[in-house]
Amino acid sequence: MATILVVEDEVDIGNLIRAHLEADGHTVHQAFDGPGALALVEAHSPQLIILDWMLPGLDGLAVCRRIREAHLVPIIMLTARAEEIDRVLGLEAGADDYVVKPFRPAELRSRIRAVLRRSGTGGRVESVLSAGPITLDPGPREVRRDGETIALTFSEFELLQSLMSDPKRVHSRHDLLRAIWGDSAYRDPRAIDVHVRHLREKLEAVPEDPQLIVTVRGAGYRIGET
Ligand code: CA
Fold this sequence. Notes:
Blueprint: E1 3-7, H1 11-23, E2 27-31, H2 34-44, E3 48-52, H3 60-68, E4 75-80, H4 88-92, E5 97-101, H5 105-119, E6 129-131, E7 134-137, E8 142-145, E9 148-150, H6 154-165, H7 173-181, H8 190-203, E10 213-216, E11 220-223
Parallel strand pairs: 1-2, 1-3, 3-4, 4-5
Antiparallel strand pairs: 6-7, 7-8, 8-9, 10-11
Bound molecules: calcium ion (CA).
């Protein structure tokens, strides 16, 4: 069971999410605006954050950026279908995924389970993977480049692990979405492109000329011949 922070100014929705999560046995902290959310992140170090995009004052996007300055905690953003927004902006700001309102509680819970199952400690013992200067240790969820630790978000880690565990294969965006989030619902393939770009910025010597994560035009991504 996990400690989860729910950030939503609409009290009914926040309470509904809280009730579902508590029914699953999680400890839930609730914030109703950005400053409240930032304070609770520092106070409780949640293992997962559900963050509404539309908040009074500091919006969810800004809150997400602020959290990412110091924390790698998985963040799932809530967005309204009616909003004329580019949801990729949320991923750019460091969110791992988003759920579109109105959502079925079962959908949100399945995504939460996917995150917690993978990010939890004490899971399977898996071997250390390597590609060129990069090593990935699934146990402590640690990635190093030439021995130096590189801090990755939940999605970045999952994506890199999927690619490195089958390095000869070309992984389609669909395959990678499924590897990160499971098979439960439609996902936006652009999410993969955003996470890959972030990975390149963190791992590649020259991000504009990637050697580690190579684009295979029209097909997806694979690990380069490093
Ligand atoms: Ca809201």
